[in-house]
């Protein structure tokens, strides 16, 4: 089966600019996650969707970050305006159904964002 | 607060030697724990989960609730084990909390 797809793979912007990332989860997966991974750290969950509803966005900086999952499939994550500290790899993951005890998250290749 | 600590950022061992990657967690409830691995130029992927009590690629991990640890072990390291390893805790509803990771290098 095809894995989680993300684009772009790399993005370089200047601070105060806007940027958007796209994620296409594995077909049939109800749960979608966006993580931020700063260099030298583990991934940190930003937002979690179940179908097209938000389950957890407690760690999403809502003054500048937004995410949506229209129609419960693809998702976009936007940063507006970007700050230097937003430089990181943004990972998208999907899983069949978060309510299953054996549910497994599958990760995409990530988008490496550099803010200058 | 839920937290995962991996005390070693870097770990280097010789091929054929035993490997132990340490993981300690902080969580007041009943934990679900995982090890994820990222090989060079590959995606982050699940290695094993404690509820499965399985051995994957020769690796095992035992949950020790008394010491709040979930160390990853392999008796004989292989060069292909070189990778970044992350311990992760699931406090509930699929939210994963990751440690900082340990870069394992297996020397020939």
Describe the structure.
The complex is a heterodimer of chains A (116) and B (108). Chain A has no helices and eleven strands. Chain A has strands at 5-7, 10-13, 19-24, 31-37, 44-50, 53-56, 65-68, 75-79, 88-95, 106-107, 111-115. In chain A, the strands form two sheets. In chain A, strands 2, 4, 5, 6, 9, 10 and 11 form a seven-stranded mixed beta sheet that branches. A four-stranded antiparallel beta sheet of chain A has the order 1-3-8-7, with no helix packed on it. With 108 residues, chain B is mostly beta strands. In chain B, the strands form three sheets. In chain B, strands 2, 5, 6, 9, 10 and 11 form a six-stranded mixed beta sheet that branches. In chain B, strands 3-8-7 form a three-stranded antiparallel beta sheet, with no helix packed on it. Chain B has a two-stranded antiparallel ribbon with strand order 1-4. Classes of the chains: A mainly beta (116), B mainly beta (108). The A-B interface holds A 3-4, 31, 33, 40-45, 48, 55-56, 91, 95, 98-99, 101-110 and B 4, 9, 43-46, 51, 86, 88, 93-101.
